[in-house]
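Protocol step 4 of 5: obtain the predicted structure for the target chain.
Materials: sequence only (see below). No template structures provided, no constraints applied. The aim of this step is simply to have a reference model before the mutagenesis design in step 5. Sequence pasted as it appears in the construct record:
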Amino acid sequence: MLLNLLRDHYQIKNRCSLSCWKFVVCILLLLSGCAALQQQTAVKTIFTEPVADGQIVKAGPFNLLGRISIQNGHQRHSGSIRWQHTHTNDEILLFSPFGQAVAEIWQDQDGARLITSKQETFFAEDMEKLTAEILGWRLPLNGLQYWIQGHHSPYSASAKDINHEERIIAIRQDNWRIHYNRFFPDQPEQIARPRILELNYQDLKIRMVVDNWEAE
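Step 4 output (structure tokens):
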């Protein structure tokens, strides 16, 4: 009888201890979730107007290596990306997950050019329309050269959401919605660069992860 009482006592005690630990874990998860939610909640929205006609505002040069995934309806693609941007042109290389070349893309003042893995070459004035026609999804290069650096494009109206740390968390521009999920750690005298961002346009979703960033 005594042994049974002692066994029941320890079982109840163990269950209470386990319940306490579960309660503590739930509280910690709740607090971390609240902190993440607070960080991603906009505290103000800034509206911008396009620059005056004829004014040129160029995006800063950069080189980046990263990964890209595209979801367009029922189609999904993923791979890696290498992008070199200067004041005069862009060169983008898209690769499959196995490192095979998918497309080579160039854009300069003369227009856009795309070379497929079959060495077929296509030309157009608009990169977004060219990639939509050839690749099946839009690459908004004119805006992305600014968005990838955490800025809005100066050539059209935009709305920017800022969090409590005065860091941008979203941009809405040219029918695109850009969400910033993570930034590189702040560096002295340097602006924090986006590391993970998502772009949405109708049923198209593009997710970019920057692994290596070099800004000039």
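Step 4 remarks: The CA atoms of residues 39 and 165 lie 8 Å apart. The longest strand covers residues 204-215.
Proceed to step 5.
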